[in-house]
Amino acid sequence: MSTTIPVIVRVLASSVSVAGKAGKIVRDVMSKGELGIVEKGKDDYQTEADRSAQRCIIESLSAQYPKVNIIGEEDNPDTEGDISSEWLAVDADKEILSIECPSFLKSVKEEDIVIWVDPLDGTSEYTQGFLEHVTVLIGISVNEKPVAGVIHQPYFKTLIDGEKKLGRTIWGLQEVGVGGFTAAPPPDSLVITTTRSHSNPIVEKALQVMNASQILRVGGAGYKVLQLLEGVASIYVFASPGCKKWDTCAPEAVLNAAGGKLTDILGNYYKYGASEGKPNKTGVLAAVNGELHNYALTRIPQELKDKLASNK
Ligand SMILES: Nc1ncnc2c1ncn2[C@@H]1O[C@H](COP(=O)(O)O)[C@@H](O)[C@H]1OP(=O)(O)O
Ligand SMILES: [Mg+2]
Ligand SMILES: [Mg+2]
Ligand SMILES: [Mg+2]
């Protein structure tokens, strides 16, 4: 591979490839039927698919980019023994490699990059059979900001020449744009997307004040941002801690690249440096554009914002 291609573009191209591989692992674990569920905490589970997909992503990327700081959700993916070489992805997506790198990212070095990996976003939904909500998230940050990201959907169905194909990979790069799907404008009426498995009274209060025509309750931060990108919903509101940096890094990067905005419930951006705290303590507020984001921000009562801020 030519070393004249800037490292950020190579890392994104490798991430697109490895996300597809991780998605296959996610499907294989489900079709074998032994999920190996471990309860990490309240409403917080891990399966064999989370563990194996994380190993695939981290070992593949760190073999190619040893100086990049890669942080994954799962603490104890089975670290014993070598992983199957079948799982090691060393290829890079050709389409991404041909992208013209934005000038501000051309001189980024491996050691400037922090990658946040969520090997399986929407684990609750995965275990309950809501498979289309499941995504694999790889978020790439530089100087604490998410600059590129991959959202892979292992169970997305397409028909190619009459043949069913499973899985699609959406990517975004700041100042370049997005790919892997067809973007659509937001719905005419206000449609909000939110959690289906982690609600509480404050989450509900923040939804009530939005004056929405419809509230969609789906799993995963990745899937909800896809709904924004595809014109299914206009705003994503989650007024609660629970999401972590690996949940929002890739979705935020892709949404930004498409002209959207993701912050906490107070309107502040999260930082994605390696030394940042992992929890997104002050919730998630995302929208397809700045105007809708601002609408939602102004509707959330100060009292509710103060309550979330006291979690900090
Ligand atoms: N209370 C929580 N405990 C653990 N994970 C959470 C919690 N709330 C949110 N998450 C993570 O954020 C994602 C988006 O939240 P939600 O689906 O509730 O909107 C979840 O799929 C889950 O990621 P993961 O499935 O990777 O563990
Ligand atoms: Mg989890
Ligand atoms: Mg997640
Ligand atoms: Mg996860």
Automatic annotation (TrEMBL):
GO terms for molecular function: 3'(2'),5'-bisphosphate nucleotidase activity; inositol-1,4-bisphosphate 1-phosphatase activity; metal ion binding. It catalyses: adenosine 3',5'-bisphosphate + H2O = AMP + phosphate; 1D-myo-inositol 1,3,4-trisphosphate + H2O = 1D-myo-inositol 3,4-bisphosphate + phosphate; 3'-phosphoadenylyl sulfate + H2O = adenosine 5'-phosphosulfate + phosphate; adenosine 2',5'-bisphosphate + H2O = AMP + phosphate. InterPro entries: CysQ/Inositol_MonoPase, Inositol_monoP_metal-BS, Inositol_monophosphatase-like, Inositol_monophosphatase_CS. GO terms for biological process: phosphatidylinositol phosphate biosynthetic process. PROSITE patterns: IMP_1, IMP_2. Transmembrane segments: none annotated. It is an enzyme of class 3 (hydrolase). Its cofactor is Mg(2+). It comes from the Eukaryota. CDD domains: IPPase (cd01640). Mg(2+) binds at residues 73, 118, 120-121, 247. Keywords: Hydrolase, Lithium, Magnesium, Metal-binding. Its EC number is 3.1.3.57, 3.1.3.7. Belongs to the inositol monophosphatase superfamily. This is 3'(2'),5'-bisphosphate nucleotidase 1. It comes from Bicyclus anynana.
